[in-house]
Write a structure and sequence with these properties.
Length: 311
């Protein structure tokens, strides 16, 4: 199983993690050995200005160049990658990267909120030039569109700070686990973990996991002690740990990791342009600044590729 391979993703907004209304404030901070040295997210940080690269700009198709902008689709419901802030603006890792990619190509990004399932059809119908919405790069998707890798994510597990229930991430049998409805982690419990518990004559995870519509409710269930474990995509877990000011910690390593890809129309000259832009942003340090701003350095890559999915 690859995390969010089909993006049976967080169906409702994880954006609320950014609001101050959550009962998630405490003292201290948390940094686990598996966080890859990621820092606390600081959305107010400014990223250095990006200059156009004439060689990369020369790869941009004439119709896009004449419009002066890249229309980028994102399902703004998945903090810290793409979500709406308290003013309704679409922000996040993918938004900052989209803006930087566009600037490298001598363009301006026009990031538009879109239903996740409509994005790839919108790309092939030329409604959008790019899709940046935490898409996992898969061979199946590469049959329809090009995927330009820019980040790596997987599944992760969090518990309360200090792991008071002595949870073993490899054996959640009988534990109370919070997940968001419709996610790959929810399916993992039903399709993988609970069958393994049954085969080992151990109690299953109750209810196939306690399911919540909002990822923020998943986090709150763990913080409040209603549940013992939280499962989600690794950037979401890392972000929740930082937003809860040290009340949670990641347990074990991120697993089932796979690259995220920028979605581009199949065979478009924009694909090498975008790949070159991502690689240039990696080389000049802008990429690291953006990942650091959102506290997700653990997902950094050092080489962007086109259609390099392993499965």
């Amino acid at each position: 199983m690859i995390a969010r391979t089909q993006r049976t993703r967080l169906l409702a907004s994880a954006a609320v993690l950014a609001s101050a209304s959550l009962v998630l404030t405490a003292c201290g901070s948390s940094k686990s050995s598996s966080s890859g040295g990621s820092s606390a997210a600081n959305p107010s940080v400014s990223v250095a200005a990006v200059s156009a690269d004439p060689a990369l700009a020369g790869l941009v198709p004439a119709d896009v160049k004449s419009s002066g902008k890249l229309i980028v689709a994102a399902d703004a419901s998945y903090a810290p990658n793409e979500f709406k802030d308290d003013k309704g603006n679409i922000v996040g890792l993918d938004v900052d990267l989209a803006n930087a990619i566009a600037k490298k190509l001598g363009l301006t990004a026009d990031v538009q909120n879109a239903d996740f399932t409509s994005i790839i059809p919108g790309i092939t119908a030329k409604k959008y030039q790019l899709g940046m919405s935490s898409f996992t790069d898969t061979k199946e998707r590469e049959q329809t569109v090009d995927m330009v890798s820019y980040f790596t994510a997987g599944s992760a597990i969090a518990v309360k700070k200090g792991n008071p229930d002595k949870i073993d991430p490899k054996d959640l049998c009988g534990k109370k686990v919070a997940v968001q409805t419709g996610t790959t982690q929810s399916q993992e419990i039903t399709d993988v973990r609970n069958p393994a518990c049954t085969a080992a004559n151990k109690p299953t995870i109750p209810n196939d996991g306690d399911k919540f519509t909002l990822q923020t409710d998943v986090t709150t269930a763990l913080v409040s002690g209603r549940d013992q474990v939280m499962m989600a995509d690794s950037p979401v877990v890392d972000y929740a740990i930082k937003q809860t000011n040290g009340q949670l910690e990641k347990l074990g390593e991120t697993y089932d990791s796979a690259p995220y890809g920028v979605v581009v129309d199949k065979g478009s000259p924009l694909s090498p342009a975008v790949q070159g832009a991502v690689q240039s942003l990696i080389a000049d340090g802008t990429y690291k600044q953006i990942l650091t701003k959102w506290g997700v350095e653990a997902g950094a890559i050092d080489k962007s590729e086109i259609n390099a999915a392993k499965s």
